[in-house]
TrEMBL record:
Pathway: Nucleotide-sugar biosynthesis; UDP-alpha-D-glucuronate biosynthesis; UDP-alpha-D-glucuronate from UDP-alpha-D-glucose: step 1/1
Domain (UDP-glucose/GDP-mannose dehydrogenase C-terminal): residue spans on this chain: 331-435
Database matches in NCBIfam families: NDP-sugDHase
Keyword NAD attached: yes
Organism whose genome encodes this protein: Lutispora saccharofermentans
Protein name: UDP-glucose 6-dehydrogenase
The keyword NAD is assigned to this record: yes
Amino acid sequence: MNISIIGTGYVGLVTGVCLAYKGHKVFCVDKQQRIIDSISRGVSPIYEQQLDSMLAHVIKNDELKATADLSQAVMDSEITIIAVGTPYIGGQIALTYIKKAVYEVGAILKNKKDYHVVCIKSTVVPTTTDTIVLPILKQASGKELGDFGLVMNPEFLKEGEAVQDFLNPDRIIIGAIDEKSYEVFKNIYQYHFDAPIIKVNPRTAEMIKYASNSLLATLISFSNEIAAISEEAGGIDALKVMESVGLDKRFTPKVRGELIKPDATKYLKPGRGFGGSCFPKDIKSLISFSVKIGYDPKILKSVIAVNELQVGRILCTLKKELLRIEDKTIAILGLAFKANTDDVRESQSIKLIKELMEAGAKLKCYDPAAVEKAKKELLGCDGLEFFNDYREALAGTDAAILMTDWKIITDIPFSEYVKFMKAPAVFDCCRALDHDKAKLFGVKYIGIGFRK
Ligand code: UGA
């Protein structure tokens, strides 16, 4: 099929590259010439594992084209996917970019004879596609449903693993406004992907996306609450608790009698709390949508509340362990909101850094990919140094806080903490290190959900 994609952020670009890789002809539309030039050269404008090599491949084979010419792209394709941003402003998502893109596509469809399906891929609150997008499309095109189609097709792509998630989906949700839209749109996925296609209406599709992210965030906050109770009680290892909970076959199904061990703790693991551009924004948006339509969502509010307590709890523990923060130098290991990305949006690490600066600590920060973005985020903060080598960040410090579980960080041998730090003490906020091993090396270990 020929497919246009509006928006070349990590969702739009990954979708475009993967669909091109699967044999479709894709037009990636963006207004910024810098982005078009970069894509056309086969160089991804965003950091995402595997994307560069796949982009280079599909550009070379002429399967993907970047363009600013939306009109030509829509005219030459059967489907247009809208994957523009929905910034969180004033307690809810702003639909400015969506509305603009929908209007522009609608106006182009006015002059198009062939049937064309418009797809909303951006995350939008339930009712957006049928009550906002559809009327704009009708008005801009002067046409009725049936002359064009409309679907809501949410994405489930994790930053850093987006390509793999796209190529190996757990499920494909198609929220179709009518049968014809579904029949045409499903051809994008049918025969190309080994996953169930779930046909629903647009509102249900929108809700599936929010419910998925909300459940995952709920698991994280739940684990962190169990960790907090365990810390206060003492002598409990909340990681062992949640690992054991996760091994219940209702969470971790057995495949031919074998437990799928590594995933048993995913999202059921104590840690520094969730961040990023999705979980905090999506849950807050669902809360405000829910309140607006007359339901007070108590669980969702608590999920956010527990998450917002996490940085404060880390700071409190640190103050207790280090006695005085203001005359200490602390290494921050990991600045991105999670591993394998340079994204620092809503990063718990950045929030902790701000609190520690306020408390008067000197900080030495390290991240394998996010240093430049973190510098921008922390512009104007004094007493902060950034390093591209963790050894330099560790040198002469009184404590190291592990905030992002990059492999290069979790692989740091305990001998190096001993070698470089003034006083080898590590606060494991990702529960990624072996506390018994730390003890063997004489490294003081503090972990979320783990107190002697
Ligand atoms: C999330 C969802 O996982 C995707 O399915 C969804 O498509 C995406 O949002 C989106 O809405 O676009 P993402 O934000 O990239 O993806 O990251 P996750 O890997 O899910 O992590 C989110 C946050 O939770 C991170 O801060 C991460 O460190 C934290 N997390 C994750 C934990 O604290 N513990 C865990 O066990 C897992």
